[in-house]
Amino acid sequence: MFTLLMQDSFTSEGIDKQIDLPGSADYFTARNLTQEATTHTPGRGIKFEWFNSSSFPPASQLRTFKTDATDVLNATQDTSGGFTYYASAPAVEAEVVGTAITNASPAVVAMVNTYSEGDVVRLYGTTGMHQIAGMEFTISSVSGTGFTLLGLDASGFAAAATAVKARRVPKLKPVEPSALFVTAISQASEAVITLSKAHSFVVGQTIHFSIPSSFGMAEMDQKSATVTAVTAYSITVDVDSSAFSAFAFPLSTGVPVVRLFATVAPEGQRNSYNINEVPYRSGSFLPYMHLPAGQQSPAGSAGDIIFWQAWKKEN
What we know:
This protein has 1 helix and 24 strands. It is mainly beta.
């Protein structure tokens, strides 16, 4: 027998979602109500389930999904793209050593690893790319020999990195939304800010910039702005930067003399308040369930309505 702990719904922003729980859970399910009523190519996930069992390691899920352009339902158990249940604070992980980071867009790291899609890693010891040493990145296109940094266009860097070290870190900070590293700012009527990590900012949120002079675009430093659009790795803000000086990383040879990062942090909301999103909420609330976004993941795509339930098994 199971007892319902909590249930609710949310409209997906196309980004990962954290669900804080009032107690330990043994079963968690999420239904994509939007995709239940539609067909797409490619097919979409409809129902996602997690059980508190050794057969459901982090990022696992039992997924019910539609096939391409039909309402035919299939079911499978995934070992990636699914739920991660946090009952305690994760321990510090071991260092992993890599051999290169390409100066390309996006940058690609060569590193033998056991990481998963969507993990967050802190990079350091980046020989040849000291500008990014200490920054955190959400990784994608993960294989056993490397991964991609979608939030970093390194094509303007003078040289590739010839060595790098990494540690996997928790996806959520003690306070969410947290301050994030800025990797690019466009010169446009509405500035587009590229971030090193997949973020939790939402449209309507007020944010604050800290842009050191070594990164150029000094006009953006200490400026507040409102988010007008979001993607997984970027936000658009109501600031006309078209006449600003260009944003660019300092040279690797300038570090550590100019060892500062460009960052953006939440400032709150001027007109409304939603405790589940902004201006601030705890990212260390335990236990909680992490739902990744995506067509075949429980947080869905932007605009999808997700209904979820958490259950506790009776002793």
